[in-house]
Amino acid sequence: MLLLVGRIAALALPASSKYLVDEVITKHHGERLGILAIFIVAATLVQAGTALMLARVLGLAAQRAIMDMRRELQRKVLHLPVSFFDQTKSGVLIARIMNDPDALRNLIGGGLVQLASSLLTALLALGVLLWLNWRLTSMTLVLLALFAALMTYAFRLIRPLFRQRAELNSQVVGRLNEALGGIRVVKAYRAEGVEERAFAAGLDRLFASVKSEVTASSTVGGGAILIFGMIAALLVYVGGRGILSGAMSLGDFIMYVFFIGMLVAPVARLADSATQLSEAFAGLDRIRELRERSSEEQEDAGLAPFSTTRAEIEFDRVGFEYNPGQPVLNGVSFRSPAGSTTALVGPSGAGKSTVIGLVMGFHRPTTGQVKVDGRDLATVATRDLRANLGVVFQENFLFDGTVAENISYGRPDASREEVKAAALRAHCHEFVTRLEHGYDTLVGERGVRLSGGQRQRLAIARALLADPRILILDEATSSLDSESEALVQDGLKSLREGRTTIVIAHRLSTVRSADQILVMDGGAIVQRGTHDSLMSEGGRYRELYERQFRSDVQAHGLAAPVVPDISEVDTQPLPPLLGKLLRK
C-alpha cells in the first residue's frame, strides 16, 4: 500500500506539466500557479513520507531476516554429521553463516522493492503514454523489449559469477581464519611469508572473479545506454513531427517527455536491480545447499530411543572407509564388558581414533555392526547415545569463557559445588584457586591463558561432571608432566569405576591396568590380551613397549638396558628413577 501511494504521488509533477503549459502559461492564467505549486508540494510530501516509512519498515525487516537466517544456519551447521566437518573448513563455514544471509538485505531491503517500485511506476507511466500517443509508445516498447532480452541474458550470465565470487571469498576467509587461529605455529616457524603469499593468491583469484563480474555488469550498462539513446532519438524525431503537424500540443509533448522519463528511468534501474538480485540469488543458492543437507536428527528420524544400563560395547566384524576403496578398519571384532577398561595401542594411522569415532556415533560402519548393550548403533538415535558418553580428547579444547563454564559445559545447570567437586577429583582445584578470579577466571580463546597440563585437567573435570556411563579417553594425559599425570591418573581411576572405558594411549605405561589391550596395526587387531600376557607372548606389543622403554631411558641420559621379564617388572622393587619412567 505504501509503495502504491508513493508511486501515485510521484505522478503529480509530470501530470501537472501539461496543465502548466496549455492552461496556465499559454492562456496567461497566472492566478492558478499558487494552487498548482501547493498541489505539487503536497504530492511531494506524501511521496517523501511513504518513502521514509517504507525504507524503515523494509530496513528493519531485512536486518531481522538476516539475523534469523544466521541463527538458522548456525543451528543447522551444528547439527550436521561429523563427516561434513571432515570435508569442510571451519573458516569457510563461518564465512557462509555470516556473509550469505546478507543476500536477504538485497532482496527485502532493496532489490525486490526497487524492482517492484520500478515495475509499478513503469506500468502507470505506460498507461498515460498510450493515452497520449499510442503509436510512438508502441515503437518505444519495441526498443524496451530489446532491453528486456538483454537483461534476461545478463541475469543468467552474472548469477554464476556472483556464486563463484562468494565461494572464493569463503576460501580466502577460511585461510585467514586458519592463519590467525594458528598464529603461534606461524610465528614459531617464521611462516608469515607463506601465509602472506597464500592470502595474496586467494585475493588474486577473488579479484579475477570480480573482474569478470564487473565486465558483465558494465556490458549490460553500456547496452542500456545505447537503447535509451535510441529511444531519445525516436522521441525527438516522432514527437517533433507531431508538434509541427499539429497532432500534439506543446503541453502534450512536454508531458510525454516526463512520462517517458518515468517509464525509462525505472527500467534503467533494473540493471542495478538485476545485479543485486543476481548476487542475492547466488547467496540463497548457497544457503539452500546447507539447508538441504541432512542433519543428525533427520538421519535419526524414526530410530528407537536408547538408554544404556550396562554399557557393554561390542564390535562385530566392523569395516570402515572414509573414502570408497580405501579401508581404514578391516574386520575389527572385540567386546568390552560393562565396567571394564579396554586400551587401544598401536602406531599412528592404525585405526584407533576411528574406533572411538564409531563408538561416539561420529561415523557409521561400512560393514559389520557396533553394538551397545546388544543394540546396533545404526538403529539408535545419536543424541540418546551421546547422552551416555563422556570424552576427553587429545586436543583439550576449551572455550573462551570462565573456568566454571568450561567445566560445566556438558551440564550447564550444575551447581558451583558440583563443579568444584569435579575439579577436586581431576586435581585442578588447587591451581584454579590460585588464579586471579578463581573459577570465574577467563581462560581465553582455546584456553590460551592456561598451560597444556591445566587445560587437560579442566577437560578431565568436564568429563567427570558429566558422569557418563561410557568413558572415552583419547590420550587424556598426553599434555601432563609426570607429577600432574600421577595426580590425574588417580582421578581417572576413580572415574573409571563402574563405567565402560575405552582408552587410546601411546605411552604404554598408562594402559598397564586395562582389563584388555588391543594392539592395532593397519586397521586390524593384531594382538589382544592383558599387559602381562602380551609381554609374555612377544610380538608387536612387546616390540612397542621395549622401544618406548629404551627411548624413555635414553631421554634421561642412561644407556638402554635389556628390558627385564615383565613378571620381574611387576613384582621386584624398582629403583626410583625407573619407577618414575614406567609411570610416564
Task: Tell me what you see in this structure.
The structure is a single chain. By secondary structure, this protein is of the alpha/beta class. The chain folds into two domains: 2-293, ABC transporter transmembrane region fold (Up-down Bundle); 313-508, P-loop containing nucleotide triphosphate hydrolases (Rossmann fold, 3-Layer(aba) Sandwich), CATH 3.40.50.300. The protein has 22 helices and ten strands. The protein has helices spanning 2-10, 12-25, 33-78, 82-87, 90-99, 103-132, 134-181, 183-188, 192-245, 250-292, 296-300, 352-359, 382-386, 403-407, 416-425, 429-433, 452-466, 482-496, 531-537, 540-555, 566-571, 576-583; strands at residues 313-323, 326-336, 341-345, 367-372, 375-376, 389-392, 470-474, 500-504, 516-521, 524-529. The strands form two sheets. The protein has a six-stranded mixed sheet with strand order 6-7-8-3-9-10, sandwiched between helices. A hairpin with a 2-residue loop joins strand 9 (516-521) and strand 10. Helix 2 (12-25) runs antiparallel to helix 10, helix 7 runs parallel beside helix 10 (250-292) and helix 9 runs antiparallel to helix 10. The longest helix is centred in the middle third of the chain and has 54 residues, at 192-245. It starts with a helix and ends with a helix.
